[in-house]
Write a structure and sequence with these properties.
By secondary structure, the protein is an alpha/beta fold. The chain has ten helices and twelve strands. Helices cover about 30% and strands about 20% of the residues. α1 crosses α9. It is globular.
Length: about 350
């Protein structure tokens, strides 16, 4: 019997619907339930062929448990090793390299020194930074946000250098990034499952949370939707996420990827609405079943993105780039499918 489990926290609607949907399908030798943990012993299997992870970003114990499970062959959605390594600033840098438009963004050191460090820990950091160059590159208005954070915690909208320093002085030990504001005429939040299944949802981030999927704008042009879908697939195939959301701000007809490091995206019925909820429950349930069918006991059943694969195989990430001491090769190009 193949077992699919879901690991979750404060969610209420999605986990139960996910388990019920899989069991209702009645696929032979496949069952789903909530993951239960009574002990974690090094190198021992979890008992699950597939685990959908919705909470380890907030619970380090779960992240370590999932890595141990993956080492023993569990297909974890999403890959806990990559998720541990990824962050928003890297996402932006990768997007630049693979040709997906993103806002101008700069990484900033923390305002306060981390615990157990002193001035000698930062002898490679020039002080003061080239603030004039940074502000000229990004421009104002701008947003300052944690380089690896989620949601809207510790996010500031800034209008001037003076405003920046006032807010920056409040960020304590957080590592922040300063990002150009994209003044948009339309906005999308897009689910992506398995690097190929995409649902584009018109979205209004300036609305209250429960009204963000009800913005009342006319449907977008097919050309823009096609470009958005292609960018969503490209980003997720390079990153290697089984489940993610990508947000796009449309300015002058160009989709700018604003945020695409959301491996445990909102899937609550009360916020995303019935149609979007039905899509994500059905799509993730079907995807998890397929992963269970493809599961190979004791082997690596994780998803690895093109960025990692290109590094492991010494294949160029960027078209026409030549890696040191290896012959130039063509870039890895993800296939676009519907």
């Amino acid at each position: 019997m193949k077992k699919i489990g879901i690991l979750f926290g404060q969610e209420n609607t999605f986990p139960q619907a996910f388990v019920d949907r899989i069991n209702k399908k009645g696929v032979r030798n496949i069952t789903a339930d909530f993951v239960l943990i009574d002990k974690v012993i090094q190198g021992e299997a979890s008992g699950y062929d597939v685990i959908v992870d919705r909470i380890s970003q907030d619970v380090p114990f779960y992240r370590a448990m999932l890595k141990n499970a993956a080492m023993s062959g569990t297909a974890v959605i999403n890959n806990p090793f990559w998720w541990s390594a990824d962050e928003k600033f890297f996402n932006n840098a990768l997007a630049v390299k693979i040709g997906v438009p993103v806002p101008k963004t700069v990484l900033l050191p923390s305002r306060d020194m981390p615990d157990n460090t002193n001035g000698n820990s930062f002898r490679n950091l020039e002080y003061p930074l080239d603030w004039d160059g940074i502000f000229k590159y990004v421009g104002f208005p701008a947003y300052m946000k944690p380089f690896d954070g989620g949601g809207w915690r510790d996010v500031y909208k800034l209008h001037s250098p003076e405003d920046f320093f006032d807010k920056f002085n409040q960020t304590r030990q957080l590592v922040m990034m300063l990002q150009e504001e994209i003044i948009f005429e339309d906005y999308f939040r897009c689910y992506c499952v398995g690097g190929q299944h995409v649902r584009i949802m018109q979205y209004e981030p300036r609305n209250p949370h429960h009204l963000r999927y009800e913005h009342g704008k006319a449907p977008a042009a097919k050309k823009i939707l096609k470009q958005v879908k292609e960018y969503v697939i490209k980003l997720n195939q390079y990153l290697g996420y089984d489940l993610n959301t990508v947000e796009f701000a449309i300015r002058d007809g160009i989709p700018y990827a604003i945020d695409f490091c959301n491996p445990a995206p909102d899937a609550d019925l009360n916020s995303v609405g019935e149609e979007n909820f039905e899509w994500i429950v059905e799509t993730i349930a079907s995807y998890a079943i397929n992963r269970a069918k493809a599961h190979k006991p004791g082997l690596d059943n994780l998803t690895w993105g093109q960025f990692v694969k290109s590094g492991a195989s010494k294949t160029d990430l960027i078209p026409n780039a030549v890696a040191p001491q290896v012959p130039a090769q063509s870039s890895l190009k993800p296939q676009v499918s519907s």
